[in-house]
Amino acid sequence: MKNMPIENTAHSEKTSKIPAHTTKRSASERSKSSALTLRRMTLALFLVTALAAASSYAETKTQDVRIAFLGEKGGDAWAGAEQGIAEANAQGKFLGLRYVLLQAEDADSVRGLSPSAVIAATSALRMSRLAADVAPIPVLNTTAEDDELRQACEANAFHVIPSFAMREDALFQWRRKSPDGGVRALAWHPLFEKYAAAQLNKRYTETTGRQMNDVSWAGWAAVRIVAESIARGGTSLPEAVGEHMRTELAFDGQKGTDMSFRETGQLRQPLLLVKDTEIVGEAPVRGVVDPSNLDSLGLPGCLK
Amino acid sequence: MKYLTALLFIISPFVVQADAGRIFVTNEQGDSVSVINGADNTVIKTIPIGKRPRGIGISPDGGEVYVAVSGDNLIAVIDPENLEVTRTFASGDDPEAFAVHKNGNIYISNEEDAKASVFDPKTGALVAEIEVGIEPEGVAISADGHRVVVTSESTNMLHIIDVPEHTIARNILVGARPRAATFSADGKTVYATSEISGEVKKVDVATGEILGRMPLSDDKAKPKDVLLSNDGTRLFVAGGRANRIFVLDAEALTILKSVKVGKRVWGLALNADGTRLYTTDGVDHQVSVIDTSKLEVVATVPVGKFPWGIVVKN
Q1: Are A32 and A39 in contact (CB under 8 A)?
Q2: What is the pLDDT of residue A20?
Q3: Interface predicted TM-score (ipTM) of this complex, two decimals
Q4: A252 — contact with chain B (CB < 8 Å)?
């Protein structure tokens, strides 16, 4: 919160400070000077009181939290993120916070928005460049699945969408249990009902008319992760938000377990195994590995 | 002999009438309510009730049992003596859990509407609606009736609501997916379970300060119902997929013991003198009966499919 510059006695005294060797002032000059000082003090007191009242009013006003979005407006990630914003505000209204999603075209416009975080729905290359250009603002990747992007291990890059390696590991585990081909590994599915998935799918479809898929789930989750970090950390400053995400986050993504970020910036998460339109299983696959071992999917650490 | 028979005739009604209490259980997928005789732990009746019954509660005078029939968006009223459904009333969308105020009103969490609604069950009239966070679930009322707590699972908060103003006094961030909550007897403290963070938190109602926090020792634990013992010294927590009841010291929140029950235990209810704790073991389709001084299961009662809520009529 900016402080208004105010005139005060200290300021007046500084500018009227008289070096020791100058002549003393006359009595009338002294009394005029003290009357002026008294007026200045009264004015100062008035301004200090007014400012105090203004700042306490400002404290009860809602604080805007900006989240930037780089990607196609109206696409799946955008729609998921907007759902996330509505839900973040359902919490934010009890905390004096108002979240808003703002589209940006490039790193310069992102920085111009002074956001708490950026959501990216773009290619791996643009994602990587953006993270480097806007550091330390955290950038959350909702679309690029490249493993190399994770292995770059950029401190402010966070990958909500699963990597190729995670999907491959899920399929590998599934085939150990059930050797049929034609199964896909997904982050989300519109028919997912377990845990609180049914509630999220219902809310999203009622609001947007769409079915939630991997990318829209990632857009939703990215916003909810940022909001969670702000609510728990108590600050919307981007560096602090990134720090909370790296070190403290325990995110309920409505997939039944709490999720956190690896040192690669990848969000650990369960995956769904889907054949045609039916969910046939979940990974990590029970019976093959411990289902709570989320690091059995994908590369857990930075190789370099 | 005739004299003895005559004597037995006089005595026997009193023997049969021993005050045992009845336990009412909602069967979420059985679309029914099972009624258990507390004296011998047998099922007296299974009452068909409508789609997806979940929350259950009892009026202050014990004269009516209320059931939240989530799939039909209504509250069904059961006479606990003749075990018939006497009436139903509309309850707002998807009523999941509720609590009964000592003035008779019912406070319901409307899971899909981010609201809690207040109904007068005598008339079915909507008394108030209060906006809370997303996916409200647990509802509890302080003994003096001045405060209600509602948990919102997706917003990760407890909302403390003033009665009768029905305004929110305080919102408190807790662990991920808070499910159930309960007040201490003096109404100054709330205990709440969080499913995804697998913990119990103890919160000061007036300040919102977190007074204590205990993660449950089993990482499969997705805790749900939480109840204080009658003397307020112990906390019983239904451990969900940990398939056990955790018994905590209510002051320090240290775990004193865990009692193994059936699979996916969610609901808890105590009898009037606090000697018996009843649990709904959803995936095993049964109720476990625990002796609260020995902390042992003394009986299991098969009920309908996926038992959810439970209440004791004494």
Answers
A1: no
A2: 39
A3: 0.81
A4: yes
* 3-class DSSP assignment, residue A246: helix
Q: Which residues of A touch B193 (CB under 8 A)?
A: none
pLDDT bracket for residue B223 (50, 70, 90): confident
Q: Residue A168 and residue B53: Cα distance in Å, rounded?
A: 41
**Closest chain B CA to residue A95:** B171
Count Cβ atoms within 10 A of the Cβ of residue A74 and give its class: 0-12 exposed, 13-18 middle, 19 or more buried.
exposed
Q: Which residues of B touch A258 (CB under 8 A)?
A: 176, 196-197
A195 vs A166: CA distance, rounded Å: 21
Contact list in B for residue A256 (CB cut-off 8 A) is 196
**Does residue B305 have a pLDDT over 80?**
yes
Is residue A283 predicted with pLDDT exceeding 50?
yes
* pTM more than 0.90: no
Gyration radius of chain B over CA positions: 19
Tens digit of pLDDT for each residue in B204-218?
999 999 999 999 877
Inter-chain residue contact A196 with B177, CB threshold 8 Å: yes
A33 at interface of B, judged by CB pairs closer than 8 A: no
In the numeric block, which tokens belong to residue A244? 């909370």
The sign of the dihedral angle between the CA atoms of B201, B204, B205, B209 is: negative
Do B29 and B288 contact (CB within 8 A), yes or no?
no
From the list B112, B133, B168, which residue is nearest A91 (CB)?
B133
Which residues of A are less than 8 Å from B133 in CB distance? 90-91, 94
Give strand pairing partners of B280: B267, B287
Q: CB atoms < 10 A from the CB of A36, how many? A: 12
Contact B63, B80 (CB under 8 A): yes
Nearest to B207 by CA among B192, B184, B183, B188: B188
CATH code matching the domain that covers B21-127, chosen among 2.120.10.30, 3.40.50.300, 2.60.120.10, 3.40.50.1820: 2.120.10.30
Domains of chain A are 61-296 (3.40.50.2300)
Cβ of A257 under 8 Å from any chain B Cβ?
A: yes
Average pLDDT, chain A: 86
Q: What are the Cα distances from residue B250, in Å, to A133, B184, B191?
A: 51, 9, 9
